[in-house]
Design brief:
The protein is of the alpha+beta class. The chain has one domain: 2,3-Dihydroxybiphenyl 1,2-Dioxygenase, domain 1. The strands form 2 sheets. It has an 8-stranded mixed β-sheet. Strands 6-7-8-5-9-12-11-10 form an 8-stranded mixed β-sheet. A hairpin with a 5-residue loop joins strand 2 and strand 3. This is Glyoxalase-like domain-containing protein. Pfam families: Glyoxalase_6.
Length: about 230
């Protein structure tokens, strides 16, 4: 299946991760994703790679992890011990063909061991969903990716997102509802935020004296930020 018959209204820009201790969590993700760590004076830490789309912003927040993350990252690794050495802790190393871990602040991630590790260490961005087909179809239309299903209806993915340094966005069915702000979110660029709203996004915060981007949520309430396409 493909959503590329429609003109995308936005483009993938980069990724944001919330952290109580931004420098420490940035060092962890810098090691795991093989990105350069660049602190800023405002407390935000940038993780930089070969393209702007590889950038991960680690943003300081006061709230610690209190519930299972609704968005988590899957990564490529030569050996799960490398991720553990970087600062992860094991959560489930036996039940799946991947290793379920926690980052230094308790957020979940999954490590997929590879004989040959790709240069882009980020494999997938995984989102818990009430209706995975609906939200995956929405993001495929917004970003211009290719919509695929696992055949069960329980998992849908958006592959081939233009410019994205990962293989796909994965949306998996879960029974529990969203209760808190996601600690991981996407940034996008768009020529017109109204196009995102017309597609079904909800504006949560307009640009003001503090922020120059628009904070929105997708049809299932997942936060993301939209920047002007300059």
């Amino acid at each position: 299946m493909s959503a590329r018959g429609r003109v995308p209204v936005a483009a993938y820009k980069d990724l944001c991760v919330d952290a109580v201790d931004a420098p420490a969590l940035a060092r962890f993700w810098g090691d795991v994703l093989d990105l350069r760590v660049r602190p800023r004076e405002d407390g935000v830490v940038a993780l930089l790679g070969p393209t702007p789309q590889h950038t991960v912003w680690v943003n300081p927040v006061p709230e610690p992890v209190t519930v299972k993350q609704r968005v988590h990252l899957d990564v490529h690794a030569g050996d799960v011990r490398d991720v553990l050495t970087a600062g992860a802790t094991p959560l489930d190393l036996e039940s799946f063909r991947w290793k379920v871990l926690r980052d230094p602040e308790g957020g979940e991630l999954c490590a997929f061991e590879r004989d040959e590790v790709p240069s882009d260490r980020l494999y997938e961005i995984v989102v818990d969903s009430a209706d995975p087909e609906r939200v995956a179809r929405w993001w495929a239309g917004v970003l211009g990716g290719r919509l695929v299903s696992d055949g069960t209806g329980e998992e849908w993915a958006v592959e081939d997102v233009p410019g994205a340094p990962f293989e796909c966005l994965v949306f998996g069915a879960v029974p529990e509802p969203k209760t808190v702000k996601n600690r991981i979110h996407l940034d996008v660029t768009t020529p017109n935020v109204s196009g995102l709203v017309e597609a079904g996004a909800t504006v949560l915060r307009h640009p003001d004296g503090v922020i120059r981007w628009t904070v929105l949520s997708d049809p299932e309430g997942n936060e993301f930020c939209a920047f002007g396409d300059r």
